[in-house]
């Protein structure tokens, strides 16, 4: 046990103090190389070329000035001959220190992925000159049956080449056939020049080779023929942007004598910006030397637009992403809805339309746009001046829709429907029973009625109050107070029994039919008065008779 423990300690110390350098990590299917300098990169490519025709990954851990050739007999630094290799730049740069060497060369059956679609951050990789004043071969060459796939984040830039075709990338050869393929799914090719041989400032496509452009941007490159792309093989433009390139002789952006398929219209909707020389928005493809007189595009003298379909059918194509000499009136609905369907206006964006006019002509008045909650107030220029559609347009103008906010109707106060109630002591009282509420805007809002106060006590007779409150969705509220009367319960009338004499006459027969009630003393009084009245009358009658007899 002591020996094992001692060995464990030794191993731990070895791990702690030994210099760690990870060259590659291997999984069941893919070998990954992590490289920090040109020597490690060259060794990794040599192992790939001498290994199985399998999948590999190379990840850069630093900016790498490439100073060592993979093959001494080739004027290329990083030469892939087989396998499928994905290179992740991790934001670092590959540069060449040899004026006559290609930085990356793919030949034979090699497949090289510059980045990947699902790893945009890791894919960032820059191919660059060591010194912007020096000149080199192009940055990448594809030959044989090799395929290179280029993804977003990859940038070829700042190269001025000598000795080969293409300022940045050459696909195949101009004087011999091969089946090389470049698929551009994203990325950028910019600020490169081929002024030595003069074919393709960014990309040249050789005989029987193919360049498929799906996305990305090619701009600010320079050459003699095709400042952006020069093609004698097959060029398919399914997407992306080619703009603001320069050719000394023919075709600032695209020159083709081979098979060409242009499926992209050059305008703002497809990502094209302003033309550098004029500052105006690019509107389409225009002839740039592909005519009998080799007349170049000129905004004031020669503006012949070529549709994408027309360009795809031509044997020789020289194109420039540009605009016409016409003036443009642009309409910005300012978040409103465009309603004009006349076909007189071009959609630049869902809320921005334009109309191209001959100078000194009048713009059409579009159907008024709409915006919920607002009234359209007219088209105003950038100085907030109402545009006069009766005036002639002499220069480009941008108009903005003005919106006037509508007055919102006053919010109606909700109504509570409740009436006074009468209860009896002991009844159950639910203050919300039978109570409803309604609102002009919200409709039935009975569920929102609340009892604000109530002093009803059904155990005691009395008069009480209940106050209700309801509030609508916009905050308007109302209250209502009702009266609740609690009555005492009704009691039945009980007959009063007559008083019985203290010494009843037992010899007098009982009068069972008598219902006489009252005071015995009062009855005797009335009887005495009656007797005395009768005696008085009798005495008066006797005295009168005696007087009569005396008078005789």
Structural commentary:
This protein folds into three domains: about 300 residues; about 80 residues, Listeria-Bacteroides repeat domain (Immunoglobulin-like, Sandwich), CATH 2.60.40.4270; about 70 residues, Immunoglobulins (Immunoglobulin-like, Sandwich), CATH 2.60.40. Helix content is about 10%, strand content about 35%. The strands form seven sheets. It has a ten-stranded mixed β-sheet with strand order 1-2-3-6-9-12-15-19-23-27. The N terminus is likely disordered.
Topology:
Layout: H1 2-17, E1 24-26, E2 30-35, H2 38-50, E3 55-60, E4 64-66, E5 76-80, E6 84-88, E7 92-96, E8 102-106, E9 111-114, E10 125-129, E11 140-142, E12 147-150, E13 154-157, E14 169-171, E15 181-184, E16 188-190, E17 193-199, E18 203-205, E19 210-213, E20 217-219, E21 222-225, E22 229-231, E23 234-237, E24 241-243, E25 246-250, E26 254-256, E27 259-262, E28 284-287, E29 305-306, H3 308-313, E30 317-322, E31 327-332, E32 346-349, E33 352-357, E34 374-380, E35 397-405, E36 415-417, E37 421-424, E38 436-439, E39 443-444, E40 450-454, E41 462-471, E42 477-487, H4 520-551
Parallel strand pairs: 2-3, 3-6, 4-7, 5-8, 6-9, 7-10, 8-11, 9-12, 10-13, 11-14, 12-15, 13-16, 14-18, 15-19, 16-20, 17-21, 18-22, 19-23, 20-24, 21-25, 22-26, 23-27, 31-35, 37-42
Antiparallel strand pairs: 1-2, 26-30, 28-29, 28-30, 31-33, 32-33, 34-35, 36-38, 38-39, 40-41, 41-42
């Amino acid at each position: 046990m002591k020996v094992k423990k001692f060995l464990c300690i030794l191993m731990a110390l070895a791990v702690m103090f030994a210099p760690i350098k990870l060259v590659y990590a291997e999984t069941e299917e893919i070998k990954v190389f992590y490289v920090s300098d040109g020597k490690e990169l060259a060794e990794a490519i040599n192992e790939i070329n001498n290994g199985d025709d399998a999948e590999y990954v190379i990840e850069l851990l630093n900016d790498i000035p490439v100073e060592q050739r993979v093959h001494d007999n080739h004027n290329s630094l990083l030469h892939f001959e087989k396998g499928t290799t994905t290179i992740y730049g991790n934001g670092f740069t590959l540069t060449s220190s040899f004026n006559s060497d290609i930085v990356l060369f793919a030949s034979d059956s090699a497949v090289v992925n510059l980045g990947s679609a699902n790893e945009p951050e890791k894919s960032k990789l820059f191919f660059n000159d060591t010194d912007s004043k020096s000149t080199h071969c192009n940055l990448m060459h594809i030959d044989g049956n090799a395929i290179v796939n280029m993804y977003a984040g990859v940038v070829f830039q700042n190269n001025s080449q000598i000795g080969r075709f293409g300022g940045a990338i050459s696909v195949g050869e101009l004087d011999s056939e091969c089946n090389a393929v470049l698929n551009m799914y994203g990325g950028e090719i910019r600020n490169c020049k081929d002024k030595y041989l003069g074919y393709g400032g960014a990309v040249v496509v050789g005989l029987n080779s193919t360049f498929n452009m799906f996305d990305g941007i090619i701009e600010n490159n320079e050459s003699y023929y095709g400042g952006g792309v020069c093609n004698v093989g097959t060029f398919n433009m399914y997407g992306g942007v080619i703009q603001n390139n320069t050719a000394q002789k023919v075709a600032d952006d695209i020159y083709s004598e081979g098979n060409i398929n242009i499926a992209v219209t050059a305008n703002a909707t497809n990502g094209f910006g302003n033309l550098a020389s004029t500052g105006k928005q690019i509107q389409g493809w225009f002839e740039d030397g592909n005519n009998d007189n080799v007349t170049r595009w000129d905004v004031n003298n020669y503006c012949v637009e070529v549709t994408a379909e027309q360009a795809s059918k031509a044997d020789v194509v020289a194109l420039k992403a540009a605009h016409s000499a016409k003036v443009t009136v642009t309409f910005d609905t300012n978040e409103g809805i465009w309603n004009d369907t006349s076909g007189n206006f071009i959609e630049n964006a869902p809320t921005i339309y334009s109309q191209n006019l001959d100078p000194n002509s009048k713009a059409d008045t579009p159907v008024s746009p709409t915006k919920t909650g607002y009234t359209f107030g007219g088209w105003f220029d950038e100085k907030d001046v109402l545009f006069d559609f009766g005036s002639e347009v002499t220069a480009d103008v941008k108009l903005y829709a003005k919106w006037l906010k509508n007055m919102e109707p006053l919010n109606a106060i909700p109504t509570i429907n409740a009436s006074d109630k009468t209860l009896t002591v002991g009844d159950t009282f639910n203050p919300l029973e039978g109570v409803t509420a309604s609102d002009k805007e919200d409709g039935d809002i009975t569920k929102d009625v609340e009892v604000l106060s109530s002093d009803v006590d059904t155990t005691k007779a009395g008069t009480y109050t209940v106050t209700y409150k309801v509030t609508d969705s916009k905050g308007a509220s109302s209250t209502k107070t009702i009266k609740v009367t609690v009555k005492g319960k009704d009691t039945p009338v009980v007959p009063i029994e007559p008083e019985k004499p203290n010494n009843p006459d037992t010899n007098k027969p009982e009068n069972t039919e008598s219902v006489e009630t009252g005071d015995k003393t009062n009855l005797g009084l009335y009887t005495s008065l009656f007797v005395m009245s009768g005696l008085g009358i009798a005495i008066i009658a006797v005295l009168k008779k005696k007087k009569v007899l005396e008078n005789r």
